[in-house]
UniProtKB/TrEMBL annotation:
Residue stretches in coiled coil: none
One annotated Gene Ontology cellular component of this protein: membrane
Hydrolase recorded as keyword: yes
Molecular-function GO terms, alphabetical: hydrolase activity
Key words, A-Z: Hydrolase
Protein name (Swiss-Prot/TrEMBL): 3-oxoadipate enol-lactonase
Origin species: Gelidibacter sediminis
Pfam families: Abhydrolase_1
Record-linked InterPro entries: AB_hydrolase_1, AB_hydrolase_fold, AB_hydrolase_sf
UniProt domain AB hydrolase-1: residue ranges: 21-128
Amino acid sequence: MSKIQVNNIELDYEDHGKGQVLLLLHGLGSTKKDWDAQVPFFSKNYRVITVDLRGHGNSSIPTDDYGVLVMTEDVKTFMDLLQIDKATLVGFSMGGAIAFQMAVSHPNYIHKIVIVNSSPDFNNMGTIGEELLNSRTQFLKTKGLKLLAKEIAFNMFPEPHQFKLRNAFEERCKNNNHNAYYQAFVTLMNWGLGAQLETIKARTLVVASDMDYTPVAFKQAYVERMQNAQLAVIKNSRHGVVLDQPDAFNKVLEKFLKNE
């Protein structure tokens, strides 16, 4: 692990392999450990970088200054400091929002983007988004982060054979700073690209799980609004597809990366 000073905070990251850069961005309340099944696979042929976003993992935990726009500028500066001109950004859930925003705010930094079980408009997800915002904030206030971590982990990995994945994710989530998690969550739910989605020119792969929180049709609808996007559906998977179906996910991603 290495640390680098970015926008008055430190980001913890790992850097493996050589070649075209894959920058992997984890989900809300998690860490770069989300990508443990991808790093050894892709670092054989690519330079694979994983990073703990601000307020997460081993990176700095500021009191305020959260949100997709702030984290996007962290990623841009991070790339500058590592002298990376272009990268393929692979973003899971909240990481997908950051990848979307990078493609809008700093398109010249983008080779391709890969969006995994995410949305370009967390602030416009209809009933699903409203219920998520209300229920999770209420849960945090009344029951705390440790119990929320347990519930999220179970919803992501409910099968008996997934207990190791469930326990590992619960451990990562419950170790979050309460304020950092809350700030990251509410700012994420207030973020959206709106019509800017249609300006993205980068080749885009949207990966959807057939049992994700939002239906495949939700992802298909925004793929159709984009200039150069395609949808891949991974069966028998829930929100954490990079963890619960790593072989299928890696195969889909590898095909997209090789197809210029």
